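Exam revision sheet. Question 4 asks you to relate a sequence to its structure. Input first:
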Amino acid sequence: MAEADETPRREPPPVYRAVLFDAGNTLIHMPQTAEETLVELCHQLGAFIGLDAARGAYLQCELYYARNYLGYTGDPGAFWLQYHGEALRYLRIDDPGGQKAAFLSCSFGQVGIWQAYPEAERVCSCLRAMGFRLGVVSNGPATVADLLSQAGLLPFFDTVIASQAIGIEKPDPRIFQEALKRMGLPAGEALFVGDLYDVDVLGARSAGMQAVLIEREGGGDGRDCAVVRTLDELIPLVGPTSGM
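Answer key, structure tokens:
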């Protein structure tokens, strides 16, 4: 009687039909920090502040954002006026009519503040040519699609989901599941790419997806997931000979 073959069977690599991305610091970024931009804009308003003051003001803005943005359904313009008003109040810059807050809101929303990473358009185009559907799931404002449009990337995506728009944020699996539902895909056929392990990788896994961590500055060694330095490195991971 022939001995049974005890060679362990290797599971075939997953076959993906879609790649979903985080937005900020994955596809798009601010070449200049928010604090540096705030310093320049305040100088234009005649308020000559330093970086330390700008950091404190930006922190106040972000605290307001964290407390209020999720599920906000009011006028987006009013939200950002209040957001930037927090910076002005911290800096003790008088703005009784709200014109200075409006200036900051308008300036931060201008084309060029958020830009695509150099390889992002090329990689999205390549993935599309390979037959993949693409989507975005972002812990961000309802205007994420506008930021992607300004960066020249929006046409590549079948769906863009922002946490503010649906009242759920990563790592909650429901926000990933909503993206999969809109794209008509099971979790096993979509790969997620993001820059935050606890938010993006663990969140995607909680929804049944595989995930890739992008660590542009390195430091991802020892992670229990695939790690890339640039989006270009995704191509061999999702190709027909993928070993993920």
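Marking note for examiners. The mean pLDDT is 90.
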